[in-house]
């Protein structure tokens, strides 16, 4: 992204002056408070939304769902929205198989005629996310953590190169949140996945991400990473690192 601005009404900018570069294969976290523009950033990368001005390239293509060239690479991008996008009244296995739709014919997809190899792949991924015993359970019957596992499994079923996850561990207890992020980390190492994850918890972001961008009121005010025990500053902003940590700390300081 180079000097990207975004607005929903052509008047008020949700994002301003955003410049960032995400290297292939890394875990990149975007941290900020509600309304800071984090979700909009993911929509821009995914082509759901186009910028008011500035340049965006996702794997050398300009993200725009109306563009034929970009639509051809859409299956390479696994996107998990805040609401997870699961179909609540169908089974876990069927929700996961939705990720295979770009690879099968429209007729077969219409009648849910999935090839045996795709079903086997879905069952393999089910086992990977620890839900092999719940393949026939309806999505609405699952816990919050289980629903997130299904959303990750569906995204992995796409065989993506990029995973975009919007607040994937919000409203989860810390143990379950770490289990979900461990799943994404394992997938990254196994298939060289690039993960871009929106967080509200700075501690979790620093624990799992190679780099963390902090968004405040539409601006990227800081970009940091961890090397050993040290926080490395890649972009100096107007807020100190200590202030950032205190701002996004979920637990009071001891």
Key terms:
Rossmann fold; 3-stranded antiparallel β-sheet; disordered C terminus; 9 helices; alpha/beta; 254 residues; single chain
How many domain regions? 1
* Separation, N- and C-terminal Cα atoms: 39 Å
SSE pattern, N- to C-terminal:
EEEHEHEHHHHEHEHEEEH
User: Shape, please?
Assistant: globular
Question: Sheet bearing the most strands, described?
Answer: 7 strands, mixed
The residue-averaged pLDDT reads 86
How are strands sequenced across the largest beta sheet? 5-6-7-3-8-9-10
CATH class, named Alpha Beta
CATH topology tier name: Rossmann fold
Radius of gyration: 19 Å
Find the structural class using helix and strand composition. Answer: alpha/beta
Helical stretch count?
9
Low-confidence stretches: 250-254
Number of strands: 10
Give the full name of the CATH homologous superfamily: P-loop containing nucleotide triphosphate hydrolases
Range of helix content? 25-40%
Indicate the CATH architecture. Answer: 3-Layer(aba) Sandwich
* Portion in strands: 15-25%
Task: Provide a brief overview of the structure.
By secondary structure, the chain is α/β, with parallel strands linked by helices. It contains nine helices and ten strands.
Structural overview:
- The protein is an alpha/beta fold and 254 residues long.
- It has a single domain (2-247), classed as Rossmann fold.
- The chain has helices at residues 38-46, 68-73, 92-97, 106-110, 116-128, 144-157, 174-191, 202-208, 241-247, and strands at residues 2-7, 13-18, 27-31, 53-55, 77-80, 162-166, 194-199, 211-216, 219-227, 230-235.
- A hairpin with a 2-residue loop joins strand 8 and strand 9.
- Helix 6 (144-157) packs parallel to helix 7 (174-191).
- The longest helix has 18 residues, at 174-191.
- The termini are far apart.
